[in-house]
Amino acid sequence: MIETIMLIVVIFVLSGVFWYSFFYQKEKKLFNRLQQMLDCAIDGELERTEISEEKYSALENSMKQYIDSSFLAKKNQQEQKEVIQKLISDIAHQTLTPISNLKIYGEILSEVSNENQEEISTILEQTEKLDFLIQSLVKLSRMESGIIAVHSEDTTIKQMLESIQQQFNVKVREKNITLSLCDTDLHVRCDSKWTVEALGNIVDNAIKYTACGGNVQIKVEQYSFFVKIDIIDDGIGIEKEEIPKIFGRFYRSLSVADQPGVGIGLFLAREIIQAQKGYIKVTSKRGKGSTFSVFLPIAKKE
User: Fold this and answer.
1) Three-class SS string for the chain?
2) Residue 178: how many CB atoms within 10 A of its CB?
3) Which keywords are on file for this protein (predicted)?
């Protein structure tokens, strides 16, 4: 009797080990196939092999269908992106001469005629706005397509801030705004030309939405891995629910519809900073001003 029981136990254990090994190997093979599919998808070389329709392969079939649809969507998105970039480039090329002519004739009319000065000023203002939009779109298109790439290197923050101050001297003087820059010897790793472009877009907004006689400050603080550049204004501020939207392409709040702008400056600024492994944070309160914090990787000491 005992021998029979022992025999049954041994058979049961061996059977369990067999079935465990069988299902383990099957799951292992399925896992390896799924991992291979994901690796190929990541590399952009998805293998479109036939998959068994067995019940056990339902997960594999679902994964393949999802990857196939994602792969196709990505391909279509890239093709649409290329079409848009080519269209922007063509528009920029075709509008270059007409915009230049509008500027020239507008300035001539302004000098030779004392009449209709308000209308002429409006024409020149709208022409500048159109030119800025076209140039911004071209920069963005070239950056997204990789034609223009950022080249990060050890850069002094002080030099970039001096460039920004020089860029906005006239604007702050016209609005009687105080632009305060901190004195710093900190270094960051970035492309100075593109970073000045990004910081300049933020400073431009700060000046634009700060009332005459207001203040705009730029402060710098060092962290373990980043340097934070704060651009602080005491302007109109931003509603809390709008903060996630302000970096959207062409986004403009209804509350600033009367102000000049096309809603691409902050979008371009974020793209530039992110391309350099940095990021931007915003804190603001309506009527109390805003703080745009730009975080850039700290330059490694040799």
Assistant:
1) CHHHHHHHHHHHHHHHHHHHHHHHHHHHHHHHHHHHHHHHHHCCCCCCCCCCCCHHHHHHHHHHHHHHHHHHHHHHHHHHHHHHHHHHHHHHHHHHHHHHHHHHHHHHHHHHCCCCHHHHHHHHHHHHHHHHHHHHHHHHHHHHHCCCCCCCEEEEHHHHHHHHHHHHHHHHHHCCCEEEECCCCCEEEECHHHHHHHHHHHHHHHHHCCCCCCEEEEEEEECCCEEEEEEEECCCCCCHHHHHHCCCCCCCCHHHCCCCCCCCHHHHHHHHHHHCCCEEEEEEECCCEEEEEEEEEECCCC
2) 11
3) Kinase, Membrane, Phosphoprotein, Transferase, Transmembrane, Transmembrane helix, Two-component regulatory system
The answer to whether 210 touches 233, Cβ cutoff 8 Å, is yes
pLDDT, tens only, 126-153: 787 778 777 777 777 766 666 557 788 9
Average pLDDT, the chain: 78
Fold of 153-297: Heat Shock Protein 90 (3.30.565)
Place of tokens 């400056």: 265
Among 79, 19, 67, 76, CA closest to 43: 67
- Name every residue whose Cβ is closer than 8 Å to that of residue 117 and which is 6 or more positions away in sequence: 110
| pTM metric for this prediction | 0.62
Using alpha carbons only, how large is the chain's radius of gyration in Å?
A: 30
If one compares 284 and 301, the residue with the highest pLDDT of the two is 284
What pLDDT, on a 0 to 100 scale, did the predictor assign at position 148? 59
The predicted structure's pLDDT at residue 56? 46
In this predicted model, what pLDDT tens digit does every residue of 198-225 receive, in sequence order?
999 999 989 988 888 899 999 999 998 9
Provide φ and ψ at 51, rounded to 5°: -120, 140
